[in-house]
Please model this.
Amino acid sequence: MIPEHILNRKGARSLKDIKPEVIEYLNKGLVETKNLMEWLATDQLSLLQLVLKDLGKEAWFVDAEVAVNAQKKPTANSNTKIIGEVLGVLTQNKEVYDYLKKHTSDLVRCWACWAESTHHDDLTSLLKAMKPYAADTHFGVREVVIFASKERMIEELDTAIKILTTWTKDKDENIRRYAVEALRPVGVWTKKIAAFQEDPAKGLSIIEPLKSDTSKYVRDSVGNWLNDASKSQPIWVQTICNNWSQKSTTKETTYIIKKGLRTINK
Model:
C-alpha cells in the first residue's frame, strides 16, 4: 500500500524540495510523477532495471544504458526517447507492450509510446497506435506522444489533417486536445509547421469544430493554435476570430478568441 501522504502529495517547485522518500517511490515505478520536477528527479535507468527484471528481460538493460550514456547532453526528455527507441528495436512482443502500457509509472508508459512509434511506417497505422497514449490520464504521456508523432505528421500533413479532423469529434477531451496541440503551427519544444505558418487555413478543419468546446483543456489549445498562427498571419487570424464571434456568442468561443488574439492585442 502506498501511504496517503505520498499519493496526495503536491509536486515540489524545485528539485531540492523533493523528499528522498518520494524519489524512492518514483524510481521504483510505484507512483506517477506529479510535475516536471519529479520527472527530472526520477532515475530512469534505475527504474528501467526494475521494469526489465519484472519482465525477465534483464539482458536488455545494457543496450539502453550504453545508448543513454553515449549522449553528449542528456536530458530527461532525451533519456525517455532513447530508452523507448531501444525497447522498440529490441522487441515487438505484445505481452511486453501490454505490461509497459499499463504500468503505474507514467515514464514507463512514455517509453512504450516511443517504442511503438518506431514500428509504424504508415501514418494511419502510427496514429492508430498513438491514440491510446493521447488519451492517457497523465499529462506527461500526452506530451510525449506529440513528440513521438509530430515530425511524421508534418511529412504527411494532408493525411494528418484528414485523420485528426475526425478526432475533433471524439468524446474524450484528451483526444480532441491532441488533434489541435499536435499540429500547432509553432508549439512548445516541437518542430514548427512551415505550411501552417504560411497558410494556416489548411488547418481550419481541425480548429473550427472546436471553437466552442466544453473543455478548457481543448479551448486552451485552440487559442494557442490561433496565437501561433497570428505571429505570421495576423490578418487571417483576425478574420477567423471575427467570423467566429459572429457565428458563436458562447463564453467558450469568447475565451478562445481572447487567447488567440493575445499577441495581436499586446
Notes: The two ends are 51 Å apart (CA to CA).
